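Q: what does this look like with calcium ion bound?
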Amino acid sequence: MSLRISRDQNFYHFNPNIEPVAFVKPGEEIILETHDCFQGQIRNEKDLVANLDWNHTNPATGPIFINGTYPSTILRIDILDIDVDDQSVMVTIPGEGTVGNRIKDMETTIVKRQGNELVYKENIRLPLAPMIGVIGVAPSEGSIGNGVPGLHGGNMDCTLIKKGARLYLTVQVEGALLGLGDLHAVMGDGEIVAVGAETAGNAKIKTETVDLTGLPTPFLENTESVVTIFSDPDMNRASEGAVNNMLDFLTRFAGLSTNDAAMLMSAAGSLRVCQVVDPAKTVRFEFPKAVLAQIGYQLPE
Ligand code: CA
Ligand code: ZN
């Protein structure tokens, strides 16, 4: 039996002073129910964002206090499963997103789920690919709105944060104060109109503390790759951050020389965009585990 946290136990800012809604031990499975990023305010195509109460958007469920975690603990979060609702919401907002200057009309489109597909405007089918938009820990001080990504995680909108992935974050306050929300039934890299298929649902996770002090986080691993994730208001800086973090990982943890790491990154790694529409943009660098295996390095189990 997993611990289940209600979507109504939520917060809007990652902040060290919020009372935890639950205390868990590493290794314990937790199911977090989540609202969509509009907190259910948009239910049909007549509900437009013009009427949205923006103070009640991007809720994250939590925060969860993880026993035995302290500042600089590396927290590993296994994404065990993501379940999304039968309907998700997409919107256009004039002025929002990368093509906001060309969008004249505010629109709401309800996307229905049918099995493993999403149906867009009756006849266009997209494969279901659930992911978590917002997941993070409290910063050591101050308050970071859930719409903002950063070193604490937050609104990274990274399509790799899905079932089977392992996300690593550096704990900044005792207990970590972990929260997540903003599930997408599907989203393209970039999130160019500023929404994915926004949906309520739930995410099943398990946390573990791991002996990887100094790991450049946010960091992710899946079956194919290790991934560094970096956010900055400037795209160039976001790219440089992700690349430098991978170079740090490969030299400090995997034991490669700077030149070998750089050449192998250039030959076999991929710099990719997570999103370009939030207050800071998020970029990732993916490096194949197949290369790590050849140099005899693997992350602790
Ligand atoms: Ca988001
Ligand atoms: Zn979202």
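Helices lie at 235-252, 258-268, 289-294. The mean pLDDT is 97.
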